[in-house]
């Protein structure tokens, strides 16, 4: 299924989706050396976002979180791409600093997406390709 | 978002990779906040200057950039006085990294003053569009000067400094600057800036991120500085109006009818002044103005401090007030620039710190791990000398 969202940070990426049912704070919640989610009690605690397309509603926490996205990128542990329900400045700026493709407003609720699905994120056009079906949601094309 | 031809060329990388990335940051922020266009800015104030905050990766990012600021730009306070860090007890390892961060910004054409009071060092006038980061500087410039800025993060303020523009949204737009609640103050007991800091401590919690409209007070500029700084710390206030005092309230004559109204009684304010024992005193949050340095010097003349007394200001203001600084230091107090009680580790060893600032009163417990006590400037000096 193909959806048209909004391009936030340029670039195209294809890979496996990792869905976070809760917002992510990059400053204290992600290890910049490894890409591991370390926030205590987070549903994805212990998961590695390196080399995966991470989907979550929006970012939270300190503006210094932008630098963590850059650090992940420098260390080779950045997510392949970011899909947000609604972009906010910390994640958007961090994605640009780290050269990580990012889109938002795909029209697909995060809760309807499944981890492990193959997706393509096009940060130039906002296009989101989901290699699977989503019940109750119709493709834009 | 509508971009002019030159902005398009910058975004396409015609003027180098750094400018391209900076333009992309601004265009993306414009997208996130539904801005229709860019607006030229007169100055920028860049946060993300303290090595303690941005760390090794922040330093690497800034080092990797290659461009020069297009407008006057200065830095937020850092973790130490650039010249006197040794006597502050800062480790040489930290100082080395801090100097590297500052040098990396210098290479980008950012002025090396590190201060939360850029309005003493830049020309900022009513109606100017600017991109400032530090919360009290944002509150002061929007409210007391009537300039227009959102509260920027480090990278977005740096991007605005290098491009010389910012996306036109939020507090840049006059229609978004109307009051959101009224605060009716029993102002009969108002005395000094600390009283306004205490008022701001209470009002900021009520206001959250709304725009307060004050009635019943007549603060001067240094008192407005204290009020705004405290509200930006205990709440997220980026703009406030004081009836008949602040410029927007006189230009637009707001009608606050129908807005939620919150009363603040003198007793709520005086209740914050508690007589607890302290082991150090700190003044200059936000950084002292020349007048404030003069007042401190006047109170300290001929006296000797018995407890550590720290005074924080900008290097430029200290340099222009040499005689006051000499009087203050002759008492045994220390005047440090570029840093402050909130961002420097020099206050970490105390159990309780006395301040005359509502902002410091809010932050000292978390940032320095010490109890905080608020008092007037005179009380602060008396406690330091006894």
Structure commentary:
The complex is a heterodimer of chains A (141) and B (386). Chain A is of the alpha/beta class and 141 residues long. Chain A has a single domain, classed as Phosphohistidine domain (Glucose Oxidase, domain 1), CATH 3.50.30.10. Chain A has three helices and eight strands, in the order βββαβαβαβββ. Chain A has helices spanning 26-29, 65-74, 89-98, and strands spanning 2-4, 6-9, 12-19, 53-56, 81-84, 102-104, 118-122, 127-130. In chain A, strands 1-8-7-3-4-5-6-2 form an eight-stranded mixed sheet. In chain A, helix 1 links the parallel strand 3 and strand 4 (53-56). In chain A, helix 2 (65-74) runs parallel beside helix 3 (89-98). With 386 residues, chain B is of the alpha/beta class. Chain B has three domains: 5-174, 2-Layer Sandwich (Aconitase, domain 3), CATH 3.30.499.10; 178-270, no CATH class; 280-384, Aconitase, domain 3. Helix content of chain B is 41%, strand content 13%. Chain B contains 15 helices and 14 strands. In chain B, strands 12-11-10-13-14 form a five-stranded parallel sheet, sandwiched between helices. A four-stranded parallel sheet of chain B has the order 8-7-6-9. A three-stranded parallel sheet of chain B has the order 2-3-4. The longest helix of chain B has 16 residues, at 17-32. The mean pLDDT of chain B is 95. Chains A and B meet through strand 2, helix 2 and helix 3 of A and helix 2, helix 3 and helix 6 of B.
């Amino acid at each position: 299924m193909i959806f048209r969202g909004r391009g936030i940070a340029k670039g195209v990426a294809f890979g496996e989706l990792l869905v976070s049912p809760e917002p992510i704070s990059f400053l204290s919640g992600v290890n910049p050396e490894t890409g591991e989610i370390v926030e205590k009690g987070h549903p994805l605690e212990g998961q590695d976002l390196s080399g995966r397309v991470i989907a979550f509603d929006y970012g939270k926490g300190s503006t210094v979180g932008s630098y963590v996205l850059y650090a992940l990128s420098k260390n080779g542990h950045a997510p392949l791409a970011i899909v947000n329900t609604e972009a906010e400045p910390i994640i958007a700026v961090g994605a640009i600093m780290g050269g990580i493709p990012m889109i938002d407003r795909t029209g697909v609720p995060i809760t309807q997406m499944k981890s492990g699905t193959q997706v393509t994120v096009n940060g130039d056009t906002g296009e989101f390709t989901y290699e699977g079906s989503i019940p109750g949601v119709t493709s834009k094309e | 978002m509508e971009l002019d031809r030159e902005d398009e060329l910058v975004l396409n990388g015609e003027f180098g990779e750094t400018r391209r990335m900076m333009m992309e940051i601004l265009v993306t922020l414009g997208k996130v906040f539904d801005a229709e266009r860019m607006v030229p800015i007169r100055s920028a104030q860049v946060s993300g200057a303290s090595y303690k905050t941005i760390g090794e990766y922040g330093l690497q990012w800034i080092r990797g950039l290659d461009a020069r600021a297009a407008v006057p730009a200065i830095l937020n306070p850092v973790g130490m006085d650039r010249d006197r860090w040794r006597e502050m007890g800062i480790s040489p390892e930290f100082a080395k990294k801090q100097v590297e961060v500052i040098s990396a910004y210098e290479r980008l054409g950012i002025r090396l003053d590190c201060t939360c009071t850029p309005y003493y060092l830049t020309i900022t006038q009513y109606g100017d569009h600017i991109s400032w980061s530090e919360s009290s500087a944002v509150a002061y410039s929007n409210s007391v000067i009537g300039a227009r800025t959102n509260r920027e993060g480090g990278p977005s303020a740096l991007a605005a400094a290098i491009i010389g523009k910012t996306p036109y949204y939020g507090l840049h737009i006059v229609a978004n600057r109307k009051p959101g609640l009224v605060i009716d103050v029993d102002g009969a007991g108002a005395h000094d800036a600390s009283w306004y800091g205490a008022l701001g401590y209470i009002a900021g919690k009520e206001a959250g991120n709304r725009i307060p409209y004050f009635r019943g007070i007549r603060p001067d500029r240094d008192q407005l500085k204290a009020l705004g700084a405290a509200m930006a710390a205990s709440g997220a206030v980026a703009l406030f109006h004081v009836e008949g005092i602040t410029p927007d309230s006189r230009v637009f004559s707001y009608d606050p009818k129908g807005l939620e109204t919150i009363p603040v009684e003198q007793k709520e304010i005086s209740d914050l002044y508690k007589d607890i024992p302290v082991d150090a005193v700190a003044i200059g949050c936000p950084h002292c103005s020349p007048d404030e340095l003069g007042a401190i010097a006047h109170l300290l003349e001929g006296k000797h401090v018995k407890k550590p007394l720290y005074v924080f200001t900008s290097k430029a203001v200290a340099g222009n007030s040499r005689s006051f600084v000499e009087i203050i230091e002759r008492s045994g107090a220390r005047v440090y620039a570029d840093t402050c009680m909130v961002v420097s580790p020099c206050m970490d060893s105390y159990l309780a710190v006395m301040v005359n600032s509502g902002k410091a009163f809010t932050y000292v417990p978390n940032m320095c791990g010490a109890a905080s006590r608020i008092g007037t400037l005179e009380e602060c000096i008396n406690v330091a000398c006894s």
